[in-house]
């Protein structure tokens, strides 16, 4: 990456929240700020981290939540101002960099080793 871009990104990373990026296979609970009209509220979202991408200010991670209707995936930017808190609930031992194979599984087949 070019030096100029890296210098600009480091300045913005210093200003952004100091959240630590969760590892692949972690079950996390996120506090996300949601704006509805003029009201703001914080919503808790819980799910499994199945992927991490990029580096620096563009770092993102993908969360897979399990709801009654099925699994929902959402990509969050680590340095977004709407992301207030990351709480790691459980850590798992995995040997892959992406857990996309969990999309086709359901029930007990989605469990990971501790």
What does this structure look like?
- This protein is mainly beta.
- The protein has one helix at 3-15, and strands spanning 27-36, 39-53, 60-67, 70-77, 83-90.
- The protein has a 5-stranded antiparallel sheet, with no helix packed on it.
In brief:
The chain is mainly beta and 114 residues long. The chain has one helix spanning 3-15; strands spanning 27-36, 39-53, 60-67, 70-77, 83-90. The longest helix is centred in the first third of the chain and has 13 residues, at 3-15.
Number of helices: 1
- Share of residues in strands: 35-45%
**Category by helix and strand content:** mainly beta
Strand order of the largest sheet: 4-3-2-1-5
What's the arrangement of secondary structure elements?
Elements lengths: L2 H13 L11 E10 L2 E15 L6 E8 L2 E8 L5 E8 L24
Antiparallel strand pairs: 1-2, 1-5, 2-3, 3-4
What are the salient characteristics of this protein?
5-stranded antiparallel β-sheet, 114 residues
């Amino acid at each position: 990456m070019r030096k100029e871009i890296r210098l600009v990104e480091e300045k913005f990373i210093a200003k952004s929240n100091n959240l630590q990026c969760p590892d692949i296979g972690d079950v996390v609970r996120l506090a996300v700020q949601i704006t509805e009209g003029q009201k703001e509220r914080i919503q808790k979202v819980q799910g499994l981290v199945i992927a991490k991408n990029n580096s620096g200010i563009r770092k993102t991670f993908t969360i897979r939540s399990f709801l009654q209707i099925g699994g929902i995936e959402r990509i969050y930017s680590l340095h977004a101002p709407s992301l207030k808190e990351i709480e790691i609930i459980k850590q798992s031992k995995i040997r892959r960099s992406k857990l996309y194979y969990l999309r086709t599984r359901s029930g007990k087949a989605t469990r990971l080793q501790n």
